[in-house]
Each structure stands twice: as C-alpha cells, then as structure tokens.
Amino acid sequence: MLEPLKRIIKGWLEASRRRGSEQRIRQSSRTVTRAALAADLARLGIGPGDTVFLHSSLKSLGYVEGGASAVIGALQDVVGAQGTLLVPTYYLPGGTVKATCEMSGYVFDPRAHGTNMGRLPEAFLKEAATHRSVHPTHSVSAWGRHAEWLTSGHHRAPSIFGEGSPWQRFVGLEGAKVLGLGVSMGPVTFYHVLEDALGAAFPEPIWEAREYQLPCLDQSGQRWDVPIRPFAPAVAARRIDYAAREDLRNYFAQEFDRAGLRVKGQVGDAQAWFIPGQAFFDHLKQLSAEGITIYSTPEQLAARPLA
Fold first, then answer.
1. Which end of the chain, N or C, is less packed with Cβ atoms under 10 Å?
2. How many beta carbons lie within 10 A of that of residue 266, not counting itself?
3. 3 pLDDT above the threshold of 70
C-alpha cells in the first residue's frame, strides 16, 4: 500500500513541477511554433532523408506551442517520409547503470516501462509509429524509414553500444547526423560507440570487471538476459558530462569546430549543432589514438594541442 501511494505522490509532485516550469518559460520566452522550428532546423542543415539522433533540452527552445509533440513533429516534417528520427528513451529505475543492475526483481518490459529522459522522449514514446529497442538500461526509440532495423535486436547485442545496437547501426547510414538542441558537447551518449567498438583497446580502463545479466521482456513477452557492464565509478567521475568537466566540454567543442565537423545554428531560442555520424565516430577514433577521450584529465588535454 505504501509504495503505490509514494508513486502517486511522486507523480503529482513531478506534474506540479512541470506545470510551474512551463509557466515560467511561457512568461519569459517568446512563443515558438512547429513551423518555425522546422524552418530553423532546415536552415541548420537537417534535411529530407536524414537519420537524426537527437539530444535535446526542451526548455531551451523557448515556449513551444504544442510542447514536446510539436518539436517531434517539426523534426519529422524536416526529415520527411524517407528520414528517420532516433531518441534516447532510457529507463534506469536505479538512477545509474550499476544501481539498476543490482536491483532485486527488476525486469525491463517495454510495454510497461516509460523513460527517465524527460518530456520530449516521453512524448516520442507515445507516437503511434515509434519502434523501441528492447534493452534494460539504454532502450532507444525511432520513427521513420530505418526505425525498425535500427531498434531490432538490441537485446542480442554483446554490449550496450556495440555490434547490433542502434548506435552502431546508425553510424554507417547515409545522412546520419547527431543533433544537439540546447545541449553542450557533454550529454552525448554517442561517444560510447567508440568505447564498445575498441573494447580492450580503448585507452582508458572504463568498465568494471563484473558483467551482469539483466532480464527483459520483448514485445511478445519472451524473456531475454542482456549483458551489462557498468562503468568504473572512479573513471566515470571525470567524464565529459560531469558538472566539473567544463574544461573537457569546451575542449571537445573547439576540437570539432576547428576540425570543421560541427555545424552550428539556432533552433527556436536554443543554440543548436549537428555532426555527421560517420565523421563523428572517425574523429573520436583519431582522438583516442592520440590519447584524448571523454575521460581525459586536464594534464592530458594540455599535452595535446587542438586541431
């Protein structure tokens, strides 16, 4: 009885917080329409047939008329019927990968579990034509031409971001673009594709030794055990997405800018950017060969000049 009541109260508090946040944004920002967002995305360089992996901050766009659904609609309008949109829809009930791995009785079910990633991913999951990968920590959802192929078989991949995962399949697609709307170069899970591709050859020992087998159910209810290796806490604590690593975020932003790979613009009120998927992967690989990763220390950055 106590746990259901806690969930109800938590849901009410979260809904109240979101209403307050929306009201503040509406009072302090200009109103942005779906059509205006689509025009901005087109000016940025997103176009018909593109496959876009989205990383976003909804509130950064301003007050969007129609909310998260309008943002999704704008992206769909721009990439068109031959395009594809991917959105991270992770579900981490433990808060972290390791804590989720250590939860007793947790079985991921895409038919029942939502996402911890915010309002835009929540809205994306409700799209009728959305396909969702089966994965107990890093489920990805997609819409469009390549959606089914990108999301199928994730639960059979040997690692979260490895061969057969949505990220690995995304890299080689023509028109693949990693898109950031109102986010820095920090919260970009695409970085981890290289780590799983290189495995033991990656310059940093980033994984814990133990591999967990997390259960999940597919859309038909069949059970699968999925291999998960959490990140080593000591290394992860200096990763690019941690608050204290502004130096590393700035370094990567300048590196990709100077290499001519990051295209920048504005979408709504948000600073926006995209990097072509294959070029992003290739440059990360080149940087790792020179000892630079998303875990590099200030001393390592100082030893290697920018491009």
1. N
2. 14
3. no
Instruction: Quote the CA–CA distance of 103 and 119 in Å, as a whole number.
Output: 25
Among the residue ranges 26-35, 79-88, 118-127, 267-276, the one predicted with the least confidence is 26-35
Q: Cβ-count burial of 174 within 10 angstroms (0-12 exposed, 13-18 middle, 19+ buried)?
A: exposed
What's the angle, vertex CA 199, arms to CA 259 and CA 296, rounded to 5?
45
Q: Give me the sign of the Cα torsion angle 232, 238, 243, 248.
A: negative
Mean pLDDT to the nearest integer, 147-165: 96
pTM above 0.70, yes or no: yes
Q: Are 108 and 134 in contact (CB under 8 A)?
A: yes
Helix or strand run (H / E) with residue 55: strand 51-56
Residue showing tokens 């999301």: 151
Q: Tell me the per-residue pLDDT of 101-152, one tens digit each, with 9 for 90 and over.
A: 999 999 999 999 999 989 999 999 998 789 999 999 999 999 999 999 999 9
Determine the Cα–Cα distance for residues 117 and 104; give it in Å rounded to an integer.
Answer: 22
Sorting pLDDT into bands at 50, 70 and 90, what band is 26? low
- Determine the Cα–Cα distance for residues 111 and 75; give it in Å rounded to an integer: 25
> What pLDDT sits at residue 307?
67
Q: Please tell me the distance from the alpha carbon of residue 258 to that of residue 306, in angstroms, as a whole number.
A: 8
Alpha helices in 45-187 (DSSP H): 67-79, 97-101, 119-125, 147-151, 166-171
Provide φ and ψ at 206, rounded to 5°. Answer: -95, -10
Question: CA dist 194 to 70, 120, 208, 254, 284, Å?
Answer: 33, 26, 17, 20, 7
| Cβ atoms 252, 301 nearer than 8 A | no
* Cα Rg, the chain, nearest whole Å: 19
